Amino acid sequence: MLTTRTNRLDPSLIPDEQLAELAKLFTKPDHVALIDGQGHRTHIPEALFTHLARIVRLMSERKAIVMVPEDEAFTTQAAANYLGVSRQHLVDLLEGGDIPHHKVGTHRRVTFGDLLAYEKRRDWTRREALDRLSDKVLAAGKYDSDYVGEE
Prior knowledge:
By secondary structure, the chain is of the alpha+beta class. About 50% of the residues lie in helices and about 15% in strands. Strand 6 (about 100-105) and strand 7 form a beta hairpin. Helix 2 runs antiparallel to helix 3 and helix 4 (about 75-85) crosses helix 5.
């Protein structure tokens, strides 16, 4: 189970000046490297650099970061909170097979990775529906581009 004490990066633990300096460094791609105690330099891969830059930027804005591994098991309430739905709606999604889950005793658990996969499918479906609606509006001649943005 996730413990926010061990997975939380609190910006108050790092001096403001140091966070500001790090934030400046991370705005320059390919200018950050790790140097070990013997002076060996290792460049940070771009995928990791992007995440570290975002973490440093958010922390310099005084926002705490919580790291969640994809295999972390969420309670139904925590999963519902993450998706922004009611707990009952989430249970309906689980029981309907929309989101995989497992049980611990009588309690349902959902992995964070499965929540991310569902969220991605849900967002794609919503985008597709909006695209179809937009196409219908355009085809019906109901979209007046001269009117958009006027008050």
